[in-house]
Amino acid sequence: MKLRIEDDTLRLRVSQGELDEFAEKGRVEGAVHFGLSPAQRLTYALERGSEPAQTLPNEEPVQVHYEPGALTVLVPFALAKNWVETDQNGFSHDVPLTENQRLHILVEKDLDCRH
User: Fold this and answer.
1) Which burial class, exposed, middle or buried, applies to 12 when counting CB atoms under 10 A from its CB (0-12, 13-18, 19+)?
2) Tell me, what DSSP letter sits at residue 60?
3) Angstrom distance (rounded) from CA 68 to CA 23
4) How far apart are CA 20 and CA 64, in angstroms?
5) In this predicted model, what pLDDT tens digit does every residue of 59-112 receive, in sequence order?
6) Distance between CA atoms of residues 82 and 87, nearest Å
7) Nearest of 30, 2, 20 to residue 84 by alpha carbon
8) Rounded to an integer, what distance in angstroms lies between the CA atom of residue 53 and that of residue 49?
9) By C-alpha distance, which of 77, 73, 70 is closest to 105?
10) pLDDT > 80? residue 30
11) Which of 9, 11, 12, 17 is the most buried (most CB within 10 A)?
């Protein structure tokens, strides 16, 4: 899985094999190692929410969870199911951070990928 971070934009590109794993297991992850110790690693993941796909009125459809060394994009079940089972290439969502700041999340299929 490819991770791209630029300013307040987070982009994930998922290969066919990773898409298959996401469809089966509900989670796919990658890691960037900055050194030899586990503390010098950033793990990033795409994770499907659980059924039922009902979203609370004030809940964001796509969420980001971050803690030191781990970044997870959480996708509601219905959105993930539709994305995996159709030819829909991707989806995006803006997560409000402050009154004037948003995190733009973009998740795409990278089906021409050969790695």
Assistant:
1) buried
2) -
3) 27
4) 22
5) 558 999 999 999 999 999 889 999 999 999 999 999 988 889 999 999 999 987
6) 9
7) 20
8) 8
9) 73
10) yes
11) 12
Q: Which amino acid is at 108?
A: E
State how far the alpha carbon of 51 is from the alpha carbons of 58, 79, 90, 109, in Å.
18, 11, 21, 23
Run of H or E including 102: strand 101-109
Rounded distance between C-alpha atoms, residue 40 and residue 55, angstroms:
35
Tokens read off for 77: 């079940």
DSSP 41-56: EEEEEEEEPPSS----
Kindly state the percentage of the chain with pLDDT values over 90.
75
Instruction: State the maximum Cα–Cα separation within the chain, in Å, rounded to a whole number.
Output: 44
Task: Show the DSSP H helices in the chain as ranges.
Answer: 16-25, 77-85
Rounded distance between C-alpha atoms, residue 79 and residue 97, angstroms: 22
Q: Which one, of 72, 34, 79, 32, lies nearest residue 54 by Cα?
A: 79
